[in-house]
Amino acid sequence: MRVFTMLPMRRWRDAAPFAATAEAAGFDALMTVELGHEVFTPLAFAALATERIARIEAVLAGEPSDGLDIRYYVPWQQCWSGSGPGVDLVMSQAVLEHVEDIEGVHRSLAAGLKIGGAASHVIDFRCHKMAGTWDGHLQYGDRLWKIVKGRRPYLLNRRSPSEHLRAMESAGFEILRAARVEAAPTIPRSSLAGRFSSWDEADRSTATMVVIARRIS
Question: In the chain, fewer beta carbons within 10 Å around the N or the C end?
Answer without folding.
Answer: C
